[in-house]
Design a protein that fits this description.
Blueprint: H1 2-6, H2 14-17, H3 20-34, E1 55-56, E2 59-60, H4 74-87, H5 100-111, H6 113-120, H7 127-144, H8 152-169
Antiparallel strand pairs: 1-2
Helix pairs in contact: 5-6, 5-7, 7-8
Length: 183
């Protein structure tokens, strides 16, 4: 799906962007970070309530201070996702058939790698338990920071959608990650 969506974009060098495992998951990340594929502009924003500051393609200035966020291209964003989130956090080396790499990368992107690695402990390679920890974190964060509570529904919808993605794209998880309802 991902390569088909972008195959007409001659400027992208897919061979240098990442592995097939990584590329298979990127439509999910881009969907939640910038409404891909409906909006192919990357959605530049600079929300004063967003701790990341300037953001485009889901890449924020706080995490990538040396980048010109406003002029960030999709190709450069994919390279950042691959090197700073997928490779740097060992996602390629995780079990490819249980969805943990995907839930871990998603948490690294959305919550930070230090927090995400902490959630790995005690989940016994179980993506559902990992997502439970992530959802608890979101709820606590919104409770403790009123200005961030406006993001809670979106955060919980994202984890619910990730449960569905894992169930549909990871054969060994077809029945083990039921979507959770979000109010």
């Amino acid at each position: 799906m991902y390569l088909a969506l972008l195959s007409n974009m001659d400027t992208l060098d897919f061979c240098s962007i990442g592995s097939a495992h990584f590329l298979k998951f990127m439509p999910f990340i881009l969907k939640w970070e910038c409404s891909w594929p409906e909006d192919q502009s990357g959605q530049y924003s600079n929300d004063p309530d967003d701790p990341g500051g300037e953001t485009k393609w889901g890449i924020d200035k706080r995490s990538s201070p040396d980048q010109d966020i406003k002029n960030l291209t999709l190709e450069k964003a994919l390279q950042i996702y691959y090197t700073q989130y997928w490779q740097a956090n060992g996602c390629e080396n995780m079990y490819p058939d249980n969805g943990l790499a995907e839930v871990y990368m998603n948490a690294c992107v959305n919550c930070g790698a230090k927090r995400a690695v902490y959630w790995l402990f005690g989940v016994a390679n179980n993506p559902s338990l990992f997502l439970d920890r992530q959802e608890t974190y979101y709820k606590n964060l919104a409770d403790e920071n009123a200005h961030l509570s406006k993001y809670l529904k979106g955060w919980l919808n994202r984890t619910s959608d990730l449960r569905t993605w894992i169930a549909n794209h990871v054969p060994s998880q077809n029945a083990s990650l039921p979507p959770q309802s979000v109010a």
